[in-house]
Write a structure and sequence with these properties.
It contains 11 helices and 9 strands. The protein has helices at 4-17, 42-60, 80-83, 85-90, 107-121, 142-145, 161-173, 185-188, 195-213, 241-244, 265-271, and strands at 23-24, 67-73, 97-99, 123-129, 176-181, 219-228, 231-240, 283-284, 287-288. The strands form 3 sheets. It has a 4-stranded parallel sheet, sandwiched between helices. A 3-stranded mixed sheet has the order 1-6-7. Strands 8-9 form a two-stranded antiparallel sheet. The relative contact order is 0.20. The model has no long low-confidence stretch (mean pLDDT 90).
Length: 296
């Protein structure tokens, strides 16, 4: 998967070499592009993650025995997707602890945090970003795997974090511990898409085409948040690609609690308007119907 910032940077460079018009549309569930309030795709992935955490919460309470569940979400350097678990907590059925890559992770403190909750309630659900690192910048995933394989961009291929932390908790607590890796499901769960997200995605594509037809180039379509009579509205603006390329937007530290293991209300207020509405999925014989495009 090509990082969107790299794509925008390459597109901008190409327009300097070749005579062409370039318009960027910020599609990334990571929600880490600079200059836009949010990115198309993020809200639907956030809705899926929050919904899944709520379902895991209720599944864990089916049993009388104590259980600990470690859930791993995407997020290499920015924790927007993992922070979405706070929406489930807001609804009263979410994770007890949330850890983002914006804050250094300490395994011993993590185990202590979990024990404090598990000893009181006999249950604990934890949501972690795949890219959490220790104070020295080492990926926690590397604790068990050693040096990790690299992708074509030189980035470590992440995964397996939940399993590592689950093993550590089993050894320390003796509890029944499950590891859940949401993986690709986060970005392909069309059945759980946000209608707001779908509508805004179409709006972004339309704005990009119209701007290109009018002669604009080397721009990215961005979203600007407005409130009209107290109601959320999304407005389109254009940014220079040079402003956006290779700049990463992370979850503000002031939206993370002082302990580094939870998300504050500011994030919930930011994300709630984005996940509203249900996208209608065509159903055929009880299953979703997908469009299959023939290659020429």
């Amino acid at each position: 998967r090509r990082p969107p910032r790299s794509t925008l940077s390459s597109s901008s460079a190409a327009s300097d070499v070749y005579k062409r018009q370039v318009m960027g549309i910020p599609k990334t569930i990571d929600n880490d592009l600079f200059g836009t309030d949010h990115c198309p795709g993020f809200a639907s992935a956030a809705k899926y993650i929050a919904t899944s955490l709520m379902e895991i919460y209720h599944d864990a309470r089916v049993y009388d025995i104590g259980t600990i569940t470690v859930v791993e979400a995407m997020g290499r350097n920015a924790g927007w997707l993992t922070a979405s678990g706070a929406l489930a907590t807001y609804a009263g059925n979410g994770p007890d602890l949330i850890y983002l890559p914006e804050v250094a992770f300490d395994v011993n403190k993590f185990i202590s945090d979990v024990k404090n909750i598990y000893d009181k309630s006999g249950k604990c659900i934890i949501l972690v970003s795949e890219g959490i690192k220790d104070k020295d910048g080492k990926l926690i995933s590397e604790y068990s795997k050693g040096e990790m394989k690299k992708d074509s961009f030189g980035h470590a291929q992440l995964g397996g974090l939940a399993a590592y932390l689950a093993d550590a908790l089993t050894e320390e607590t003796g509890a029944k511990v499950r590891a859940v890796e949401l993986s690709l499901l986060q970005r392909c769960a069309a059945h759980c898409a946000s209608k707001t997200d779908v509508d805004e995605s179409f709006m972004a594509g339309k704005a990009a085409v119209e701007a290109a037809v009018e002669g604009e180039t080397d721009k990215m379509v961005a979203f600007e948040r407005k409130y009209v009579c107290g109601k959320y509205k999304c407005k389109i603006k254009l940014l220079d690609l040079s402003e956006v390329a290779n700049t990463e937007k992370k979850v503000p530290l002031e939206w993370i609690n002082e302990e580094g293991n939870g998300i504050k209300e500011e994030f919930v207020e930011y994300a709630l308007p984005l996940i509203k509405g249900e996208s209608k999925v065509k159903i055929e014989n009880g299953l979703p119907r997908f469009v299959n495009l023939k290659k020429g």
